[in-house]
Amino acid sequence: MLTTDQKETILRRAGVAVPAFPSRRPSDQQQQSDAEPILKGRMLADGRQKAVEHWARTIDALFVEYSAARAARSLRDAEEARQLGALRHAAGGSTA
Questions:
Q1: Residue by residue, what is the 3-state secondary structure of 16-58?
Q2: Where do the structural domains in the chain lie, given as residue ranges?
Q3: In the chain, at which end, N or C, are there fewer CB atoms within 10 A of the end residue's CB?
Q4: pTM confidence score
Q5: Distance between CA atoms of 7 and 67, rounded to whole angstroms?
C-alpha cells in the first residue's frame, strides 16, 4: 500500500497540481504568543494535526481520481488496440 507521500510524488510526476504540505504560518505564531504556555502547545498541535489530516485526505482523493482516470485510459487504449487488430485481421484476410 502506498503512503501519502508516495501518492503525492506520483501525482506531482504525473503533472497533477497538489496542495503543499501544511507548515506553521507566521500568523499562527502571532496568535499562539498570546495564549497561556500550556494551551500554546495544544493549540498548535491540534491545528497542525487537522491541517495535516486535511492535506492527507486531499492527496488520497486526488490519487483515487488519478488512478481511476488512468485505468479508464488504459481500458480505452486496450479496446482501441483490439479493434484495430480485428480490422487489420479482417483486411488481411479478405485480400489473401
A1: CCCCCCCCCCHHHHHHHHCCCHHHHHHHHHHHHHHHHHHHHHH
A2: 28-95
A3: N
A4: 0.69
A5: 10
